[in-house]
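The record is kept unedited without comment:

——
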Amino acid sequence: MHTTSPTTPSAREVAPKRTFRWRVVDIVVAAVIAVATGLLFLFWNNIGYAWFVAADAVTPGLGGIAVGIWLIGGVLGGLIIRKPGAALFVELVAAIVSALIGNQWGIETIYSGLAQGIGAELVFALFLYRRFGLTQAILAGAAAGAAAWTLELFVSGNLQKSAEFLALYFGTVVVSGAVLAGLVGWLLVRALAATGALSRFAAGQDVTQRV
């Protein structure tokens, strides 16, 4: 005999209420991601900068192709935490870690982290913090690159450079952000989720539920 009422929703139909409030686990994991990303920045400060200089020597402005890894924090934070402020938090704290340990740019690193984090954050906000696919990751990385380019107009004196340089640099930074921050960041999140490390987050559940 079937006893379930037609109006009674099944367990699958009852979804948990969406909340943007940060949990303790969100704060802890965001901090861990930020510190790990800051250490990645320290590595890239040498490798990436050498690549930047070499590419720029070929054609001024081409060095932007090396910038993308410095933009990845905002993408990772947004994709994993999925709460307002996560992209900005991770990118900014990662920049602070890099600056405190020591690099060739000093306090300017923190300004960069702030701008890049805002760029990525705006994309996730545009989608109302409800969509976190490959498209959003690529757009967030590209937006972080555009924000980095805008900041450098003022803090690096790029505003005084030629229109040709600015156009090429903008294009390479945005593409680098889309690929090295957006695509690579999305792949990293999926790889982490597949290990079960993100099981307490929607980012992890999205991957494991498809397996």
